[in-house]
Amino acid sequence: MPDAIQNIALPPASSVDYTDADRILSYSRCLIASLSSSGEVEYPTPMAPCAQQHIKQGITWLHEVEKHLSALPIGSILPILEMYDFLRLICLAKPAPQKLIQKWWEKAFDAYRNGDDSVAESHLMCQLQRLMTAEPSAITLPQLEWYCGKVASWCDHLSHADSFSNESSDENHRRLTILLSEDLYMLLGNREAATKRRWRHTLAEADNAPNSLFATNGLIHRN
Questions:
Q1: Do the Cβ atoms of 78 and 125 come closer than 8 Å?
Q2: pLDDT computed for residue 205 by the predictor
């Protein structure tokens, strides 16, 4: 993270407009960047005095998000919950409750199936992957089939294209990160290792791009 981040005083979390999803996400990214810029992102809770001030703000942010989540646009819920999950681990040494993640995943998935394009496929995939890892018995067969179908579809697309050209750079980054975390031998065969090297190179180039937010976003990917 840029050194300048360490010199910026983070405003109190209570000053955030929790009816505005963009401001909620922006504050969480700034908070994570402030912690990570001086190596204070630790698990369990970091104990450095300056980190503890950020932890206090993080706990306020968590409580406010809990109060306002149901009033936010459905397309913003899963991105906020990713930050919520990460900050709970840092601030409270606890992940987000599984039932909370599953409840909002199902609501977002229903909206997606009904044509709501504000719900990004990568956010659905990321959270479903998390749920499959944490509590596989709670995953239904249709959910698993949808996940596997998306992985296969993305791999097929990238077999004749370098990227998902109709998607944002952030969506491209997330999709590649998900694919890299999966065993793709059944889809790619002996090409898996070489293909993943190419995708990692693509991600590295994106991470090193000027003004990239991927370094911050990458904090929440747990492959």
A1: no
A2: 85
